[in-house]
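Weekly structure sync, notes
Attendees: PL (lead), two postdocs, one rotation student
Agenda item 3: pending single-chain targets
PL asked that the sequence for the first pending target be pasted directly into the notes so everyone works from the same version. It is reproduced below exactly as submitted, 269 residues in total.
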Amino acid sequence: MGITSPPYNKRENKKGWLVDKVVYTGATDNLPEEEYQRIQIEVLNELYRVIKPGGSFFYNHKLRWERGFMLHPMDWLRKTKWVIRQEIIWDRMIAANIRGWRFWQVEERIYWLYKPEGKNIIGKELKPRHALLTSIWRFPPENNNPHPAPFPIALPVRAIYSIMDEKSDGIIIDPYCGSGTTLVAAKILGYHYIGIDISKEYVEYSIKRLKNYRNEIKAVEEELSRHVVRKTFKERKEKGEFVGRHRKVNNQKFSLTLFEYQERGDHHE
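Predicted structure, written out during the meeting:
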């Protein structure tokens, strides 16, 4: 699987207190929009080629406006080979706008892309402890990072852990690895990783950060602690809360919630 956040083509020549701070080392963020979208399609299709059937890719991007017209990531994602499994809202909890042309934009998007295995375009279910985190992910951007637009380590940790769960082996790829956040997350979670970046400076920083990965274990553990089912069946029953419909399994009567039934299936360990 993989995770990335490419440059957004925010146009370095635009005015604004924030735009001039988003300047990448070794690359431009000011391409003709048609060329930018073509490159994104090519990169995503190459990722589709190398990721195994049944694999996932999480693609972080945002809504943009050019002279009043909205530019939506779906404009090019639908032209790739991927199945768009879900659109996730990343609530960054801060606004990048200080003008009132629109309501202040505090969110970005994360697209869960899926490579079908055979004719199964739905894929496997997430376990309840991951699915219950919902489709709105709420955490602020990372601070104290030399990269102009880093996402917090909680973001790749959530994506990796939700998909890989307890798998003991796997490779995580990030084709715009920047400061190496995805790579550090993969390393701490025990997976191999491949990071690609055009900037020698960011590559060197990523290598240094990987050597000091222990400094970020606490932040990873904080995210992992959120992947739990908050109330057990027994606790819900004791408090008189909804515990699901009764059904018979092997001539015995059980009360299962939807999530418990999905997790247990028709067999009992």
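Discussion points:
- The first helix runs from residue 33 to 50.
- The chain has a mean pLDDT of 85.
Action: rotation student to compare against the earlier draft before next sync.
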